[in-house]
# Entry
Amino acid sequence: MRRLLNALYASTATLAALCMCGLLFMVLLSIVSRQLHFHVPGTDAYAGYLMAGAGFLALAHTLKRGEHIRVTLVLGLFKGQARRGVEVFSLVLASALAGLFAFYSCRLVWQSIEFHDISTGNDATPLWIPQLVMALGTVIFALAFVDELLLEIRGKRAAPESGEMLRNE
# Structure
């Protein structure tokens, strides 16, 4: 099961990287098209969709690598079982919030399909397509938080080492 979850997190990170490459392509296409005096409709909209996709698809992988912002100042006040209790409480709260975020993201996709919602740009993209990427990212993010919670409860969670202090200037 662990290998499957890690592969899931790595695959969403790969998809996020592909979205970043697509974003670069859209920006370059927009620049080149302006310089050569032709217009490619929808490049701005698709660049935005790809940027959002990259952000949402990278959430779970970033969490599992310990790269999300943490309030270590508060955690540093606690030792032993008290710290573990604060960690469990934080992970329960984060799992619940991520679950709500995932639920409402999926609901938004469903409503966009139901109402045949399309973008207001001249590309008229069905909005459920970019929203589906957001929903996928939030569902896997919620799964990653539940995974972290279960690891913490079982005492198998590695302390996140983000190297945050190394990057301070």
Remarks:
- The mean pLDDT is 90.
- The helical segments are 2-35, 43-57, 59-64, 72-75, 80-115, 128-154.
- Residues 2-159 form one domain.
- The chain has one domain: 2-159.
